[in-house]
Amino acid sequence: MPPEQILLLPKDKYFDWVQAAKDYVMAYGANVTPDPATAARSAITVTAPDGAGLFPVGDLAAWFNQNFPDTKLDLVAASGPGDLSAALKTRMDSNDRYGQAGQPSRALRLLWPTDYNQITQPFGVNPQIYARFNLPGHEGIDFRASNGSNIYACADGTVFRIDQYQGNPSKQPYGNAIRIQHRDGYQTVYAHLVEVLVNVNDRVKARQLIGKADSTGNSTASHLHLTLKKVGATAAGITNYPFDIIDPTPFLAKPGELVPPADGGATPGTASNIDYKWPAGKCLVGAHTRADGPMMDADLAAVRIARIEAVKLMTTSRPENVDQLRQINPAMFIMVRMHAAFEGRTVRPDEFAHWMEGDMAPFYSKGIRYFEVHNEPNLTIEGWRTSWQDGREFGTWFMDVVGRLRAVFPEVKFGYPGISPGGQVSGLRMDAGAFLGGSEDAINRADWLGVHCYWTDEVSMGMAEAGRGWEAIRRRHPEKLLFITEFANVSQQDTRSKGLQYAKYYETLRNQPGMGAAFSFVLSASSGFPEQVWRGEDGGLTEIPAGVGARTFA
User: Fold this and answer.
1) What is the pLDDT of residues 68-88, one digit of tens each?
2) CB proximity list for 387: less than 8 A, separation 6 or greater
3) What is the Cα 395 distance to its own chain's centre?
4) What strands, in cross-sheet order, belong to the sheet with 45-49?
5) Cis peptide before 336, with omega less than 30 degrees from 0?
6) SS3 for 286?
7) Are residues 451 and 538 in the same domain?
8) Of residues 52 and 283, which shows the higher confidence score?
């Protein structure tokens, strides 16, 4: 195995440079060489002065990227032996081999990389999501950035790598990405871009336009993901992240500022303990009411046997269903989904609000406060291509409806609806990620956010694009209270297995931060959904309620 570190020193006045680095070399056992190729082949990390014109290969960052892209390059701000001696002494005095410990180097400031004053996912959050990627938590900062908006370099540096997305998110989770080498061994990564406006070896300045935002790669909606690395940080034990990833937050200036807050205050949107204002404090075990019409005795029996804690009604349900559910469980949480027929016609927001006002009133009078505004709006049967053309237009429609109804029902918590998960299906469905990206403003203004998750077996129940589809939404909107307003195993698998799966699914969600409830679709239906119903039209129960009711978690 190669040694951990080698110092690359200029040939000109080589022994002066060696003398400047002598104490550091003795302290850490590093080797020295004047040859860049030898350095790259001989050690894991190459530490070198970063002054102009010191090496015949020119820009070290660009040269290493072109010839030895896997080499960790630790650049030290030094134009002569005296500068190098002082910089290395500072490292030794603080037992800081790679110049990373303590407060960030005063030489590095990360200027705000977007035109939006919002962080949508801070560094280190959601460890439960990133554990399966062998990461302690989110490995960067996500910034709000609408599709096609500007992305800027955070600091001066050299572009050393550009990743062109080839359409496989599992192999290229960052999509189109730009990587910039900065002084003192720092590197920034700008991910999920739609357009790259720089080339490898380009010198860039802080706040220079380098790309345009999108959601390429493993992403569900347009934003910028920023990763910061410091060469040698992992080996030095300075970070518990692999690949030399460190927290960008202390380096980050506020929007419009050239330096971080003098008092060390948090950057906007980086609160680590989010108050979701969810009284239950846990994810409730829920079920979706009968798909068409009021609940029947057999539906109520299923609720009782499954020990359901939350029920999602529809405006086609009867208000007395609220009383019946509370008789089963006085603490029952109940939400209502606004329902209307959209297929084949245009429904204006004022029309929808007018229809819903009368339907909501009886439930509101019984204390129901959580209402989901419509359902799966990225489907043609639910209004796509007739009442709106994309997520942006639906977002405008949604906010119009909410504004009208909030004036009548001021205490209601209005939810952005769950959408049909999956990609584009011509004439049937708009791509879920693209639709959500266009609705970002509406989602930010909604009181909560609905999610739909479906799978076909226990394996897919644990997959990111199926049963764990909510995770991508959580990464995109860490501050939002989520409800899984529909989930189901949609296969013909036996109902006993489904009941056991559902119990396990509820358990995995139980203590997820900011998850209000998960509603299994569907208790019953007069027609359709044969693989999803909890009971038949003859009143007989499947084995799903008993399987859910047998759960053992608190």
Assistant:
1) 766 778 889 899 999 999 999
2) 342, 345, 346, 347, 348, 394, 397
3) 20
4) 31-33, 5-8, 45-49, 72-76
5) no
6) strand
7) yes
8) 283
Q: Are residues 470 and 541 in the same domain?
A: yes
Q: What is the Cα–Cα distance from 492 to 211, expressed in whole angstroms?
A: 47
Tell me the three state secondary structure of residue 210: strand
Number of residues in the chain: 554
For residue 280, what are the contacts with CB-CB under 8 A and spacing of at least 6? 333, 516, 517
Residues 6+ apart with CB under 8 A from 334: 310, 311, 312, 313, 322, 325, 368, 370
SS3 33: strand
pLDDT digits (tens, 9 = 90+) for 373-394: 999 999 999 999 999 999 999 9
**Per-residue model confidence (pLDDT) at position 63:** 85
Residues 195, 211 contacting (CB under 8 angstroms):
yes
**Largest Cα span, the chain:** 93
Give the N- to C-terminal CA distance of the chain in Å, as an integer.
Answer: 50
Whether 226 and 301 map to the same domain: the answer is no
What mean pLDDT comes out for the span 437-446? 88
Domain match, 78 and 23 both? yes
Tell me what pLDDT residue 101 has: 52
Q: Report whether 49 contacts 84 (CB < 8 A).
A: yes
Q: How far apart are CA 35 and CA 39, in angstroms?
A: 6
Supply the mean pLDDT for the chain. 90
Domain count, the chain: 3
Dist CA 19 CA 310 (whole Å):
72
What distance in Å separates the CA atoms of residue 495 and residue 520, rounded to the nearest whole number?
Answer: 13
Q: Are 74 and 136 in a shared domain?
A: no
The position carrying tokens 């690395």 is 229
Q: Which residue has the tokens 């977007």?
A: 114
Q: How far apart are CA 214 and CA 361, in angstroms?
A: 41
Identify the domain boundary among 206, 229, 251. Answer: 251
Let me know whether 289 and 365 are in one domain. yes
Same domain, 89 and 154: no
Q: What's the mean pLDDT in 400-428?
A: 97
pTM over 0.70: no
Q: Does residue 309 share a domain with residue 182?
A: no
258 pLDDT more than 80: no
